[in-house]
Write a structure and sequence with these properties.
By secondary structure, this protein is an alpha/beta fold. The protein has three domains: about 5-100, ATPase, nucleotide binding domain (Nucleotidyltransferase, domain 5), CATH 3.30.420; about 115-205; about 220-330, no CATH class. Helices cover about 55% and strands about 10% of the residues. The chain is built from 13 helices and seven strands. A five-stranded mixed beta sheet has the order 3-2-1-4-5, sandwiched between helices. It has a two-stranded antiparallel ribbon with strand order 6-7. A hairpin with an 8-residue loop joins strand 6 and strand 7 (about 260-265). The chain is globular. The N and C termini lie far apart (about 50 Å).
Length: about 350
Amino acid sequence: MTKVAIAAIDLGKHTFHLHAQDDRGHELYRKKFTRTSLIQHLANVEPCTVVMEACGGAHFMAQEVTKLGHLPKLIAPHLVRPYVKSNKNDFADAEAICEAATRPTMRFVPVKTQAQQVLAMSNSIRDAFIKDRTATANRIHAALLEIGISLAPGFKSINSLPALLEASSISQPFKNNLTRLYRHFKNLEEEIKSLDRELQCQAAEDDLATRLMTMPCVGPVTSTVLAAELGDGKQFKCGRGYSASIGLVPKQHSTGGKSVLLGISKRGDRNQRRLLVQCARVYLMHLDHQKGWLADWVRQLLACHHSNHVVCALANKLARIAWAIAAHRTEFDAGPNAMNA
């Protein structure tokens, strides 16, 4: 039997469809597997390239494929879609993945380690709890308005809810519902505080996250998010590539040799972009206490640009610095000779 050069897997929850090709691009076979039978089949195949879409479960499967001696590659789903030839089905998707992977200019998604997955999951859960806490607080405010009680904006005023309910003459069922919301709100607050402590410990134990925290205004949350997504940074040729991947570079609309640059593209991971913009805004708020080449560069921009433009430019700069720290295994240096850091 001809040796398999590349095997593309269309991932699913319970079933997996595999499309195998030789080194000339000829189809060898296509089969449907369960998760267990797929691992067994790949264990009997000589080392080859195994390609999948970067979706749920892809990083786990890539880790398992690596253990079997194969080379895993992940492709963003939107880059595979143009290669689906006709009607969409699982085998057609697997063939499209195989076709996309053979393109010489194709961009691949780096495989995350289990440590990176833990950091990403912790931050994802924390963000979900924060959103739920805000929603619960809004429900409490809205319910109280229905009985003519208006609390001050924010979370602090909700702590006075038990005393307010005790002194109020509203019906007991209404009090019970508000008490349930209050307990849920306090439980979310405790979970968020617990996750904050865990993220601080994880950031201290992770080498890259620790080095990223040498950047100004970058704390445990931002450093762990960037560490989970950046890895060693080798998937990008330079810092601009990473900055472009999270939408912090100008969007182009050029034609006829005329270059037109618009606002930032806002592509890629919104969370990374949001955190870097927040870091940049905090940096500007405390600019009077900042020293070094980065502070001088920001002051020069503020002299002739709006502060919002400077925030985006600084977020772009922080993204490039983060990539340099990851790729060159260095730390941030605010000294006058640190321009190349």
